[in-house]
Amino acid sequence: MYKDLEGKTVIITGASSGIGKSMALRFGQEKANVIVNYQYPSEELDQLIKDIEAGGGKAIPVQGDVTNEEDVKNLIRLADESFGRLDIFINNAGVENEVPSEKLSLDDWNKVINVNLTGAFLGSRESIHYMLENDIKGTVINMSSVHEKIPWPHFVHYAASKGGIKMLTETLALEFASKGIRINSIGPGAINTPINAEKFADPKAKADVVSMIPMGYIGEPEEIAAVAAWLASSESSYVTGITLFADGGMTKYPSFQGGRG
């Protein structure tokens, strides 16, 4: 636990399930104020709010589309009205779908780029603007992926969006370092989330994924949430402009493991 996170206010986009949900729970355990952004209502949402509060934090659910400027501005406004400040903004919302690149429609391309990259730009821009106006030395965390580094056939729109996140993060970090605003990314590898449930239910498909992970297991959302808490805390006070890969070694060319090659 990080004592300095107690009482801080964090906005997490796409926080109703998967990695976002685990981050919301973790910041609740840190006794932070959590704005839980979601796009579509779910049966789990009410329980998530209760669990955050049971962990010692405070929580407010806010519906909104991260690709809509007014919805993003509303997240900032509600954080300020409800808790008096905003300290941490986590651009977590993301989508993906598998399509051979020569068959990828413009609509599919635009949807993934808009949510994953434009949504992160809007969240970053609005939160940084607020922090500058209020002289807050805050933190922005973007959710990237191992696929900002590893090409991924049939997911060209997703990989392109995460490559964009890398440069978005690095450029903003350089631009606002002198203001005390830190901007970093997290690059998860294969994580046991609902979006991967069908794939990992197939023993062969799961084994194929595990074979690409030097540590030999698929990560849990809580392991990514732990990275987010560290990046948001003062323990990482001298860290900005990085992608911290939490991937079990997936980005380290696992085919060479054991001296092969």
TrEMBL record:
Xref: CDD domains: GlcDH_SDR_c
Enzyme class: oxidoreductase
Keyword hit for Metal-binding: no
Alphabetical UniProt keywords: Oxidoreductase
Domain of life, per lineage: Bacteria
Reaction(s) catalysed (UniProt annotation): D-glucose + NADP(+) = D-glucono-1,5-lactone + NADPH + H(+); D-glucose + NAD(+) = D-glucono-1,5-lactone + NADH + H(+)
EC number: 1.1.1.47
InterPro entries reported in the protein's UniProt record: NAD(P)-bd_dom_sf, Sc_DH/Rdtase_CS, SDR_fam
GO molecular function terms attached to this record: glucose 1-dehydrogenase [NAD(P)+] activity
Record bears the keyword Oxidoreductase: yes
Family: Belongs to the short-chain dehydrogenases/reductases (SDR) family.
Assembly mode: Homotetramer.
Identification of the protein by name: glucose 1-dehydrogenase [NAD(P)(+)]
